[in-house]
Amino acid sequence: MKKTFLILTGIILITMGFLLMNPASGDASSQNSADTADESLINTLNTLLQNSVEISNQIEEKKHARKIAFSEQEKAYLSSEISQLSAKLEKLETDFESVALGIDMNAFHAKPQKKFVWKDEVHKLIDPLITTLKRITARPRQIEMLRNEIGRYEEQLEIARAALENLATLLPKMGSSERRLEKRLLAVTDAWWEKERQISDQLAVSRFQLDELSKERQSIWESSQNIIRSFFRSRGRNLILSVLAFGLVFAGLRYSYRLLYKFSQIHKAGERNIYVRVMDVLYHLLTIVGAAGAMLSVLYVSGDWMLLSCAIIFLLGMSWTAKEGLPLYWRQVQLMLNLGTVRENERIVYLGIPWKVASLSFFTTLEN
Fold first, then answer.
1. Model pTM?
2. What is the pLDDT of residues 147-166, one digit of tens each?
3. Domain around 352
């Protein structure tokens, strides 16, 4: 048994060592590819910066127009446009920092949730699980979001170009007596040309971000290996320590009980009275509670709220399941307390053979 345990321990250590090994670094990219990537990065940053400056100028123009506006309706319309432009400017600034720094800025700009939506306390335990799943799936969701943005920008770009084509067809039809209308249409054309250019720039930025994320995509084997390695460095370690704590406390208390049962004068005094039996039942119950408490304490000290939530949910589920078998458990407790239908030193017939009940506990001893 000891030899088998040592072999299993060696296999586990070798496996963990393999998982924790640093993956072999890939081949270095060529100098031309690096130069092309840097040039694309600089062009994207210049585009974002130019768009930010232009939208800032538009905001200032709208604010000036709002000051000299006469009607409240016109002021409200200009305020709405200013709000939309401010939102675009904020997104451009976030995209600029994200592209320049090469990191995801959502973690810094996300606002903390002030009010918890779920009313049930059990849902609070599930929240760390959902947070972990969201963090694990953040990359695929970000890729999907960029793809949706690209699709939306492509649709808007197609509409803008169709609108410009319609205006280009309409302008030559203006006569000399329609200068005012022609001037207005030219202003609309300029506005739509600007809108078409901004959409094209935003489309280019989204495509660049999607390309950058696609370059970092790993194979299924590499992703699985990284997930397993990360698991054993953090949650796997906490899980192993918590299971070890449960096993050590449970085994230690059980071994202590055996020593107590072997050397205690109370247990050697022949028939055990009701008080000794109650103490034995409580000791076995506290053994399970103590082992579970040790496991939860390890998870609490390590700060692993996801595993702690899983453990609490598991224990609650076990308790709820055990509730259905309370009558059966109560009959077993009665037998252990020597208060059931069968008691120690009584005679029973089992399979046609008379037996004497020598002892009643978790295990029953029969003598013939």
1. 0.38
2. 898 999 999 999 988 888 88
3. 338-368
